Amino acid sequence: MDETTKHLNGNARDAALEQIATRLAIRAERGRRFAELTSLRVGGAIDWVVSPETETQAAALVYELDQARIGWRALGSGSNILADDGEHHYVVLSLKELKGELEFNGEFVSVPAGYSLPRLCIDVARNGLSGIEGLGGIPGTVGGALWMNAGAYGHEIGTVTETVRVARGGKVVEIPGTDVQWNYRHTSFREGELLLGATLRLIPDDPEKIRARMEDAKSRRMATQPHGSRSAGCFFKNPPEGNLGTGRIIDELGMKGSRRGSARVSPVHANFIVTEGEGARAEDALALAEEVRERVKREHGIELEYEVELWRANEPRSSTGNDDAAGELKRKE
Ligand SMILES: Cc1cc2nc3c(=O)[nH]c(=O)nc-3n(C[C@H](O)[C@H](O)[C@H](O)COP(=O)(O)OP(=O)(O)OC[C@H]3O[C@@H](n4cnc5c(N)ncnc54)[C@H](O)[C@@H]3O)c2cc1C
What we know:
single chain; Uridine Diphospho-n-acetylenolpyruvylglucosamine Reductase, domain 2; 4-stranded mixed beta sheet; Uridine Diphospho-n-acetylenolpyruvylglucosamine Reductase, domain 1; 3 domains; 5-stranded antiparallel beta sheet; alpha+beta; disordered C terminus; globular; binds flavin-adenine dinucleotide
């Protein structure tokens, strides 16, 4: 099936989307740009942004979008995405309003996908629950963290995930965390799967001790990473072999501070690409990233794999971002 038959486009698509959003009482907006919705602050216009507020609403929404053959992608805080500068002709399903309330039950906590990960870390620490204090500085949603198995300072979200709630057939379905493969910044969730929430199983501990470990992780992050800059965190994964991290490899090539237009290799951490100035361009960030990859390949024979996702304008529906991009960007084995 080609894209014209697989996805509904144009006016018919717009009319169908408006009907679905009205029926389900979900906010649907036009005129938004990725530059407002991602932490790199670059990226072009989006046809529609729809923002469900409950898990049941979100499950019904994706079912109806799929039935109507309307292409969509899920967006959390946009802190791991480089969206290109073109016009993105698909629906962005924003999860940030799906933040609800935490539900505590002993060592378990149930959390909606749109809940802020830093907020969650603070809230569970206050309730004397340990196991995710290393994740407190990751500026995304719980859904985004689950999608790519976010991790830092010895903690990964997959390790503590008891169950995940996903949208299937218009319903909220709970699956065991053990059914998911949790790898290094990659999971077995599939394209078109919307994550609605999760139940984490944590470890009771003294809130003061947990808070101290969170502070420790925070100061290590502050000492080694740029703060107050527009970034998407580490741009590339660490190579699977060898002891050198990607930041160190790029730093030793003397590339800290290298610039392409509005993009720069951070002078603080060489695996961070930051954007600067009004009207910064995704194409600058991508060109700089490719320059880094070429240097690393030429001088070390290492093919750096992107950790950020490239979202291309006019691409068919995919909520994984794991397709090829620029013929190069690959995240999956
Ligand atoms: C300063 C900084 C520091 C960072 N440090 C770290 C770090 O230490 N460790 C780390 O792992 N990451 C780090 N990151 C990267 C990023 O914050 C994480 O990847 C985060 O988990 C992404 O969450 P998000 O809500 O922003 O997801 P987004 O960037 O919005 O989306 C990322 C992917 O998840 C998918 N997705 C999001 N929500 C859902 C959902 N509900 N259902 C289905 N798919 C969904 C999207 O479609 C996309 O494919 C850092 C980023 C920044 C800017």
